[in-house]
Every structure is written in structure tokens, then in C-alpha cells.
Amino acid sequence: MIRRETLHLILATALAGTALHTARAADMGYVAMLAGSAPQEQFVAHGLLWRCASARCTAPAANSRPAIVCEAVAKAVGPLATFASGGDPFDGEALARCNAAARQRQKLAVK
């Protein structure tokens, strides 16, 4: 039988590991790989300062839905090849929706 102290230690270690993983994911913020080169080294999209090196752009984490942030970035700089929030990459379907929504918003803005 497992002693109570050992069980508490195991539980505390597991909870601490989960909290650390969550904190690291939140620190990762957003990463967008552009389909082409970034038009500039920095830009603002959805109130976030994005910094780019070649086609890779990053921004700090925010309290926004990742899909909305993705659309704002795609609208600002063009189609995205990949997008990740907190270390979690968008799948192909979510990325396609992001790029399509950005194209639709650009068309509405032109009219």
C-alpha cells in the first residue's frame, strides 16, 4: 500500500508539471510562418506587436481567440503557411479558414 505522504508527493509533482507546461505554452505566444517573406520587420495586428525574421513572425500571448489573431495577421501580411498559438499548431482546416477569412475581409474592405 502506498503511504499517504508518497501519494501527496506524486500528486503535487504531477500538478506542478501540468502548471509548468501551461505556463510555458502561454509564454510561447503566437508564431506565424508567412507564405512569402515578411514585408517588414515589425507590424501591429490585433493590437499585438509582431516581430519578423524572414518569413517567421512572432508575438506575445494575449487573451484573444487564436483564430481571430490568425485572421488579423493574414489580413495584415498575406496568406500564412502555418500558425501556432501557445505551441499548438493549427491543422490544415483551421489554417485554410484563417486564410479564407482574411481574404474575405480584405475584399469587403476594398468595396
TrEMBL record:
It holds the Pfam family DUF8200. Keywords: Signal. Residues 1-25 form the signal peptide. This is UrcA family protein. It comes from Sphingobium nicotianae.
